[in-house]
Amino acid sequence: MSTFDVERVRADFPILQRTVGDRPLAYLDSANTSQKPQVVIDAIAEHYGQHNANVARAMHVLGAEATEAFENGRRRVAQFLGAARPEEVVFTKNASEALNLCANTLGSRLGPGDEIVISVMEHHSNIVPWQLVAERTGATLRWFDITDGSDGREAGRLDLEAAERDGLINERTKVVSLTHCSNVVGTINPIRKIADQAHAVGAIMVVDASQSVPQMPVSVTELGADLLVFTAHKAVGPTGLGLLWGRHDLLSELPPFLGGGEMIEIVRMSGSTFAPPPHRFEAGTPPIAQAAAFTTSLDYLDALGMDAIATHERQITEYLLQGLQSIDGVHILGPTQMVDRGGAVSFTIADVHPHDVSQMMDARGVAVRGGHHCARPLHERLGIQSSTRASSYLYTTRADVDALVEALTWTVDFFTGRARKGRA
After folding, report:
1. Which pLDDT value is given to residue 1?
2. How many other C-beta atoms are found inside a 10 Å radius of the C-beta of residue 135?
3. 365, 403 Cβ separation under 8 angstroms
4. How many CB atoms lie within 10 A of CB 49?
5. Which end of the chain has fewer CB atoms < 10 Å from its terminal CB, N or C?
6. Is 198 in contact with 204 (CB distance < 8 Å)?
7. pLDDT greater at residue 154 or residue 391
8. 305: phi > 0 → left, psi -120 to 50 → alpha, else beta; which?
9. Active site residue 102
10. Average pLDDT, stretch 159-175?
C-alpha cells in the first residue's frame, strides 16, 4: 500500500465485523494476541485440506509438500528478521518454550559465581526459566530496576544509571536476557547499548521480542542479539508457534533441549549423536501447519510495510494516551509520551479492581485485559496488585479508542462519580 489505510486493513479481519451484544467489537487486547486476517485463516485451512503430512519422514508427495512448506516458513522468518541463514531459525510451540530452550541450553555453561542479568519488567517467561537455571547451577540471578520518573517520558524505564553504579553487568555476567518492549508499561529498551555492554564482558545477549517484532522493523544484526525470541500469534499468525533465532555458531555449540525423533543423527542403546541446528532443537512432530501459514502472515505484514505499521502504532497509541489522560482518576503506568514506547498501555483506577474495569468495558463491547499480565514482579515494584491494559495494533482505529474512552468514563463514573476532565 502507498498509504496505510486502516479501514481497508480492518476489512481483512473477519472477527472485527463482530458485535458484542448490540455494540461493535472494539478489540484492544492485541498485546495478548492479535487477530488473524482471512488470508492466514485460509492458509491454515489450505494446508490441512491439501498438504497435510508429517515432515522429513514420509516418502510421498504430501510429505514432500509439507516439508517444503515447513522449511519455506523457516526461510521466510529468517528473511523477515534479516538473519544470515535459515538454519538460524528454530521453531518451538511458543515464545515461552523458546525462552526455556535458551535458559536450559545456556545453563549448561553456568556454575557457582556466574551471573544472569534480567530486569524487573520481564514477562514471567523471561524470569522463571532463569530462576530455575540459577537454582540448578548455583549461578546468581540479578536484575535491572526501573526508574520512578514522573515527567511522562522517563517513568518505567530501565534504570541504566543505577545498573552502571552497581556494576550490574560485569566480568561474572554470562547471560543478559531482556525484553525489547514491555508488555505492561510499553517501554522500548535500548537493547543495542546493553548488548554491547554484555559482549564487552563476554556475555550472551538474549532478547524477548514478542511485543516488538509485530509492531516495528526488527533486525537481529542491528539489535545486537545473540538469541532472539518471539511468537507468531501476536504478529497476525497462528497460535502454537514460537520462533527462536540464534547465531549459527552459538546454536552449534549448544546442547539439545528435548530428546526424540528428528533431532538425532544416530541412536544406539549405548548413546546418541545429534543433528546440527536447527533440527537439534526440534524434537518430535513440529508445528507444521502453523509454520506454513506464518509465511502468509509475514507476507501480509511486509505488504503493509513494517515502517507503516510502526507509524500507525505510534499514532494510535498517542491518541490512546491522550484519551486516557482526559479521564479523571485514571493513572497510566510507564511513559505517557510516545518516546521509545510501544503499544501496550496499562493503567489503574483508585479503589476499582482491574477485573471489574474489564468486565464493565466488555459490557460495552470493548475488549481489554485486567490482571498482572504475567508480570507480577513489575506490578509489585510499582506498588500495585494488578492493572488494566489496552493494546492497539495495525487494525486499531480512533473509533476503537473513542469507544474505550466512552466506556471507561462510564465505568469511572459508575464506581467513583468522578467527572471527565475533557479531551485535549
Report:
1. 43
2. 10
3. yes
4. 9
5. C
6. yes
7. 391
8. left
9. no
10. 98
Q: Which fold has domain 6-30+305-416?
A: Aspartate Aminotransferase, domain 1 (3.90.1150)
d(CA 317, CA 342): 8
Query: Is the per-residue pLDDT at 408 higher than 50?
Result: yes
**135 — pLDDT class (breaks 50, 70, 90):** very high
Segments of the chain assigned to CATH 3.40.640.10: 43-301
Cα separation, 346 vs 29, in Å, equals: 11
Residue 214: cis peptide before it, omega within 30 degrees of 0: no
- Compute the C-alpha angle 270/271/276, nearest 5°: 160
| Catalytic annotation, pick one of 6, 58, 64, 374 | 374
CATH architecture of 43-301: 3-Layer(aba) Sandwich (3.40)
Domain with CATH 3.90.1150.10 in the chain: 6-30+305-416
Task: Give the separation between CA 375 and CA 385, rounded to whole angstroms.
Answer: 10
Residue written as cell 549461578? 139
Mean pLDDT score across all residues of the chain: 95
In three state form, how does the secondary structure of the chain look?
Answer: CCCCCHHHHHCCCHHHHCEECCEECEECECCCCCCCCHHHHHHHHHHHHHCCCCCCCCCCHHHHHHHHHHHHHHHHHHHHHCCCCHHHEEEECCHHHHHHHHHHHHHHHCCCCCEEEEECCCCHHHCHHHHHHHHHHCCEEEEECEEECCCCCCEEEECHHHHHHCCCCCCCEEEEEEECECCCCCEECCHHHHHHHHHHCCCEEEEECCCCCCCCCCCHHHHCCCEEEEEHHHCCCCCCCEEEEECHHHHHHCCCCCCCCCCEEEEECCEEEECCCCHHHCCCCCCHHHHHHHHHHHHHHHHHCHHHHHHHHHHHHHHHHHHHHCECCEEECCCCCCCCECCEEEEEECCECHHHHHHHHHCCCEECEEECCCCHHHHHHCCCCCEEEEECCCCCCHHHHHHHHHHHHHHHHHHHCCCECCCC
